[in-house]
Design goal:
The complex is a heterodimer of chains A (432) and B (215). By secondary structure, chain A is of the alpha+beta class. Chain A folds into three domains: 16-201, no CATH class; 225-292, Single alpha-helices involved in coiled-coils or other helix-helix interfaces, CATH 1.20.5; 297-422, Histidine kinase-like ATPase, C-terminal domain (Heat Shock Protein 90). Helix content of chain A is 63%, strand content 9%. Chain A has a five-stranded mixed β-sheet, covered by helices on one side. In chain A, strand 4 (399-403) and strand 5 form a beta hairpin. In chain A, helix 1 (19-46) packs antiparallel against helix 2 and helix 8 packs antiparallel against helix 9. The radius of gyration of chain A is 34 Å and the shape is elongated. In chain B, helix 2 packs parallel to helix 3, helix 8 (153-164) crosses helix 11 and helix 9 crosses helix 10 (179-192). Chain B has two domains: 2-130, Rossmann fold, CATH 3.40.50.2300; 135-213, Arc Repressor Mutant, subunit A (Orthogonal Bundle), CATH 1.10.10.10. The N and C termini of chain B lie far apart (38 Å). In chain B, strands 2-1-3-4-5-6 form a six-stranded parallel β-sheet, with helices on both faces. Classes of the chains: A alpha+beta (432), B alpha/beta (215). Chains A and B meet through helix 9 and helix 10 of A and helix 3, helix 4 and helix 6 of B.
């Protein structure tokens, strides 16, 4: 199975015959947009006399909704999504919102687009639609002449000439010409309209950066939260577990020491108890260490660790790993825990009889696929296992996609950025 | 009995030496790093070696690799590998090649002195000593296996102890039953798992481990 990048030229999502109607619809919307344009242009100066504020509170969300609908439509026409570039107010409150909105270039670009759309966009979409409807019109022209009374359709070109039914067949080739034109440029005109929309509705370079910064600070906050929670868990585990047991152990040993000459039998019993609590403390520490950084990952890297993981599953797991070297430790650890969690999910929910794991490195990314032949229907739910993986991967700019139709099979696709230059080439950990 | 020890923690190394020498073992060399281990094993050809998995300089699985390498040079050299944690992957690597005379135990097991010494002697005698944790994982993995689910709870218990490498006598003692009863159970197990019956303890263990890990 090969993994390919998304093709650069995405196809139009609407079938050809739907395009003229979409174009017509867009042309109508373009003219309706004038109303939004005017309302906004009127409202802004009115801020000076306060009336503008409530007006903007209504109009701006309307424009944004209108623009968002177009973003979706244009996205479908050009095949690539148009992200929403709006800034979020840093604090709640009407004035803060107003301030953010008025200083947000996206607000003004929306308004500029309303105007451009009403002029250029309107022409583009209208021509695209009209070419099609002209085709239809001339192809059935003789019929129209035949069934309508004199003076309705039989005097084309503003009454310059008058045609009878038979002569009207002479107009049919015009329909073919229009069809040729529509077939050649209809879709392009629609795409040109989408390009115009994208250029004004899409985020600017700085807005893209702002969006990126927002994403990063969100994922960073989440990472910090997760790590803090993890540290708390470790602290609690140590405090309630190993630490408490060691305290009991040293108490038992002290008592045994005191008792050894007086009551050797009792001392022996205490020593047995001490040994048991030492064993339990060790096993708790072992589990804790496994949760922090599994020793086999340190020993054998991702390949060995994932194979070891596969061995502990109650069903057959096929592991294919093709990596040119060892990824950096944090990436390796994130990938390992993601696979571990995905496998745990399969064990818990899928009722699978076989599973497979594939890890490859391609175009500067680590691709991890975990599949099973279980019941399917897996989704990313807040608090669920897959959500946990997603959060873990987010910290590294990684992504998680789940394909799990009801009835199965399920494939979890995870990607982690990992530069080839960061891969450590280690001497093969080959063993006999 | 001559022993080579490999353990990097001074405290644990001294403890092991003290423990083994107190029970009539003679420690011929105690090494504290990986590179020195293979030559020591090949040179002394001890009756048994007790080796820690994690050793300097890399602190990864040096001990395991040295053990496998030494056994390649000196076939069936008895080695008991100790580790802070157990991995089935490592158990499988140790067992590859067959032949027995290997052990893989959690370090904690040393604290149960009698059991530990029994394991060392078993490995020295060409037997096997697998940690109950490894066997537990193996059995847990096979719960969906049809022949295994046909075993009675008692038979599963016997299977587990057998896989650890214990003899019929030891299993009988552990379960407080007669040796005859154990042998009846083992016959049933072999029949249910469709394995060729064998009176030889070592071959029996190998058959069971191969069966469990092949799934």
């Amino acid at each position: 199975m090969t993994i390919t990048q998304a093709p650069p030229q995405a196809p139009m999502r609407f079938p050809r015959l739907a395009q003229p109607f979409i174009a017509l619809f867009l042309a109508v919307l373009a003219e309706l947009g004038i109303a939004f344009f005017v309302l906004n242009v009127v409202a802004v100066p009115l801020i000076a006399v306060w009336v503008g504020i409530p007006l903007l509170l209504v109009f701006v969300p309307c424009v944004r909704w209108f623009a968002n609908c177009h973003r979706t439509l244009f996205g479908a026409i050009s095949g690539t999504e148009i992200p929403r570039p709006y800034k979020k107010p840093p604090l709640p409150g009407v004035l803060m919102w107003l301030r953010t909105t008025l200083t947000d270039p996206a607000t003004w670009r929306d308004i500029a687009w309303l105007l451009a759309n009403a002029v250029v966009g309107f022409v583009l979409t209208l021509v695209s639609a009209v070419l099609f409807f002209t085709t239809a019109f001339y192809l059935i022209y003789p019929l129209l002449v035949g069934v309508t009374p004199h003076g309705v359709f039989d005097e084309p070109f503003g009454g310059l000439i008058t045609l009878n039914f038979w002569q009207s067949f002479g107009m049919v080739p015009l329909g073919l010409v229009a069809f040729g034109l529509w077939y050649a440029v209809g879709e392009r005109l629609l795409k040109a309209d989408a390009v115009l929309g994208r250029s004004l509705l899409g985020p600017t370079e700085s807005a893209k950066l702002a969006i990126r910064v927002r994403e990063l600070s969100e994922s960073r906050a989440e990472t910090v939260d997760t790590q803090a929670a993890e540290l708390r868990r470790i602290e609690r585990d140590l405090h309630d577990g190993a630490q408490a047991r060691l305290a009991a152990l040293s108490m038992n040993l002290g008592m045994a020491e005191e008792m050894v000459s007086r009551d050797p039998a009792q001392a022996a019993a205490l020593l047995t108890e001490a040994r048991e609590s030492a064993s339990t403390a060790l096993s708790e520490l072992r589990d804790l260490v496994r949760g922090i950084h599994p020793p086999v990952l340190a020993d054998r890297g991702l390949e060995g660790a994932v194979k070891a993981l596969a061995l502990t599953c109650p069903f057959k797991v096929d592991v294919t790993i093709e990596l040119p070297g060892r990824p950096p430790a944090p990436v390796e650890s994130a990938a390992y825990f993601a696979v571990a969690e995905a496998l745990a999910n399969i064990v818990k929910h899928s009722a699978a009889t076989t599973a497979w794991i594939q890890i490859t490195h391609e175009s500067e990314r680590l691709h991890i696929l975990v599949g099973d032949d279980g019941v399917g229907g897996a989704t990313v739910r807040p608090g669920g296992g897959l959500h946990g993986i997603e959060r873990r991967l987010n910290a590294f700019d990684g992504t998680l996609t789940v394909a799990s139709p009801t009835g199965g099979p399920t494939t979890v696709i995870m990607e982690l950025p990992c530069e080839s230059s960061s891969l450590k080439i280690t001497p093969s950990s080959g063993t006999a | 009995m001559r022993v080579v020890i490999a353990e990097d923690h001074a405290l644990l190394r001294d403890g092991l030496i003290r423990l083994l020498e107190a029970h009539d073992f003679q420690v011929v060399e105690a090494v504290d790093n990986g590179p020195r281990l293979v030559p020591a094993l090949v040179e002394h050809r001890p009756d048994v070696a007790v080796v820690d998995v994690r050793l300097p300089p890399t602190f990864t699985d040096e001990g395991l690799k040295a053990a496998i390498e030494a056994r390649r040079q000196v076939p069936n050299l008895p080695i008991l590998v100790l580790s802070q944690y157990v991995e089935q992957l490592y158990a499988r690597e140790l067992l590859t090649g067959g032949g027995g005379a290997v052990g893989y135990l959690l370090k904690d097991r040393v604290s149960n002195v009698a059991d530990f010494l029994d394991s060392v002697r078993r490995v020295a005698g060409g037997g096997t000593a697998m940690d109950p944790d490894v066997i537990g994982q193996l059995l847990a993995r096979n719960t969906r296996d049809e022949p295994i689910s046909r075993l009675t709870p008692r038979e599963s218990e016997v299977l587990g102890l057998m896989a650890e490498g214990r003899s019929n006598a030891a299993i009988a003692a552990a379960l407080f039953v007669t040796e005859k009863a154990v042998s009846k159970h083992t016959n049933n197990i072999f029949a249910k798992l469709d394995l060729p019956p064998s009176e030889d303890d070592n071959r029996r263990v190998m058959a069971v481990l191969t069966y469990l890990s092949s799934r």
